[in-house]
């Protein structure tokens, strides 16, 4: 004997079943993105492709501390120096795409190396997920205090009178300081003798001693020397004057039309291996931007001459591609090869 269910109760059960099905579908549809809500569930490794104590390391450690507090898991900096950042960059590129190994990639890693090496152990355009910007270090053109030119116009005129005789140091072939010099030479059509060193420190020491006459320098390692009058800055390679050097004019203020819009920075960004899940990228970017905008962290960086560079992942990708286009042209025109 069949039990007959009243029509009203049957309709109620059907409605309840539909509601439960919809609820379950919504729940399961959210499972994949919700995985990002549990990220990170373990410490995050931040690879720095340079030795401890330098500008790149300082930026990473300041931001890692703040981000670790907000993420609820430690962000541990691991230094992998060597081979013009190639060793560290390759370690990032070959890591598992889960967000637990990320790191710093700078202008050398992403914009210079692809144009200077015939082959690399990573592909700057395919092997990374762009997460966001970190910071940029404005470059300035400095001379020994006894150098006769008092401003940039006098400097260019003097260089043109003595082609190949005025020396300019850099931290090494293919460094941001070197390619900025090459851009300057190309824009002004001048011949300046490039003298490469193994790092900024010995180059700055020889500039202070008068062994070389000029140098593009970035601010973090040179700011104390500028303030002490041991080197003299002719111009900053930024669109506006720097608050940290308010009396120093920009390249554009020199009155030389070929230097209008001249900009040069050493910059750094935050990347992971290719194919990082979008929710993980979004979480890392969120905490990175918050750390860069934190008043205490921002003040520490700006005190060193570092300009925080908060960007979305898409903005940093666009920025990187524009820098690749600019500097690859400069490098090829200068004939810089490192292999």
Automatic annotation (TrEMBL):
Belongs to the UPF0065 (bug) family. This is Tripartite tricarboxylate transporter substrate binding protein. Keywords: Signal. The lineage of its organism: Bacteria, Pseudomonadati, Pseudomonadota, Betaproteobacteria, Burkholderiales. The keyword Signal applies. Residues 1-36 form the signal peptide. The keyword Signal applies. It comes from the Bacteria. InterPro entries: BUG (IPR005064), Bug_dom1 (IPR042100). It holds the Pfam family TctC.
């Amino acid at each position: 004997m069949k039990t007959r269910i009243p029509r009203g109760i049957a309709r109620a059960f059907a409605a309840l079943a539909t509601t439960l099905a919809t609820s379950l579908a919504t729940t399961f549809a959210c499972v994949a993105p919700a995985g990002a809500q549990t990220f990170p569930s373990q410490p995050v490794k931040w690879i720095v492709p340079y030795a401890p104590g330098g500008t790149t390391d300082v930026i990473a450690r300041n931001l890692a501390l703040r981000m670790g507090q907000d993420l609820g898991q430690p962000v541990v900096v691991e230094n992998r120096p060597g081979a013009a950042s190639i060793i560290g960059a390759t370690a990032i590129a070959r890591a598992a795409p889960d967000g637990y190994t990320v790191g710093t990639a700078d202008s050398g890693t992403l914009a210079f190396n692809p144009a200077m090496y015939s082959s690399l152990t990573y592909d700057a355009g395919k092997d990374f997920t762009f997460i966001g910007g970190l910071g940029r270090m404005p470059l300035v053109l400095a001379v020994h205090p006894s150098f006769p030119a008092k401003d940039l116009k006098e400097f260019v005129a003097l260089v043109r009178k003595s082609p190949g005789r005025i020396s300019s140091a850099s931290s090494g072939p293919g460094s941001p300081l070197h390619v900025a010099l090459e851009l300057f030479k190309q824009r002004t059509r001048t011949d300046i003798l490039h003298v490469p060193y193994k790092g900024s420190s010995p180059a700055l020491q020889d500039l202070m001693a008068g062994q070389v006459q000029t140098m593009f320098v970035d601010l973090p390692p040179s700011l104390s020397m500028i303030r002490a009058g041991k080197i003299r800055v002719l111009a900053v390679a930024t669109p506006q004057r720097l608050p940290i050097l308010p009396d120093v004019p920009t390249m554009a203020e020199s009155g030389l039309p070929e230097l209008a819009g001249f900009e040069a920075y050493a910059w750094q960004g935050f990347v992971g291996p290719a194919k990082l899940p979008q929710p993980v990228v979004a979480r890392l970017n969120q905490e990175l931007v918050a750390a860069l905008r934190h008043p205490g962290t921002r003040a520490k960086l700006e005190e060193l001459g570092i300009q925080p560079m908060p960007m979305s992942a898409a903005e940093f990708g666009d920025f990187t591609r524009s820098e690749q286009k600019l500097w690859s042209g400069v490098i090829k025109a200068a004939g810089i090869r490192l292999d």
